[in-house]
Amino acid sequence: MQNWIRINQNIRVARLDSDDDWYASSVQDINEREFCISVPLKESRPLVLSKGEQVKVSFIADMTRYEFITKTRGRRYDNIPLFVLAMPKEYTRVQLRDFVRVPITLEVDYARIPIGGKEPVFLKADSIDLSGGGIRLLINNDLAAETRIIIKFTIPLKTGPQEIEVVGRVVRIWADERTRLRQAAIQFVKINRKQEDLITRFLFNIMSEQRRLR
Question: Where does the record place the PilZ domain (predicted)?
């Protein structure tokens, strides 16, 4: 697990009996037996942990969500107050890119990849859903399967908007039943790890908010 927990890694922490009442925190220090986190906060309210108390921890790294239960070992002060948690022996992991596709409407600019050094000509579209591996668009023109396109959109994260520009491949295109437009399923074929993590964090935040409102 210590290979995946990293300093400055954003995590969520919840008491074991809290019914998923998550607080935001981050990793500040790591060794083989334990790791230190900043005081978890939720809307400025701190989560105060006691020595020996068990907590649930969840975080995303490399397109994977990790979840585990661990024990609070105490407190430490290193310029800021920290809680010391035991490194878990067991954890669960879920590959998000393969399974998470969230319905979301975003303004998207897309363009065929130009030939001969020409500037790309961008068109407007709306997204229908998004995952770490692709996006489904509602477009008003036709694109043949296997067409490579540039896709630009902005995701609103809590830390501020993040612009994403990737290259995608049209996997399938079909008529939308409710409009005269067409739906295009796009697979991202040129995307870096940071962009994948940003998209996954954005989708994870949406799903967390949806669970909170249920």
Answer: 95-204
Supply the mean pLDDT for the chain. Answer: 89
Sign of CA dihedral 30, 48, 20, 193: negative
- Dump pLDDT digits (tens) for 182-212: 999 999 999 887 888 888 888 878 877 776 6
SS (H, E, C) the chain: CCCCCCCCCEEEEEECCCCCCCEEEEEEEECCCEEEEECCEECCEECCCCCCCEEEEEEEECCEEEEEEEEEEEEEEECEEEEEEECCCCCEEEEHHHHCCEECCCEEEEEECCCCCCCCCCEEEEEEEECCCEEEEEECCCCCCCCEEEEEEEEEECCEEEEEEEEEEEEEEEECCCCCCEEEEEEEEECCHHHHHHHHHHHHHHHHHHHHHC
Separation of alpha carbons 209 and 168, rounded Å = 28
Label residue 58 left, alpha or beta by phi (over 0 means left) and psi (-120 to 50 means alpha). Answer: beta
pTM, 2 dp: 0.57
Give Cα 32 distance to the centre of its chain. 27
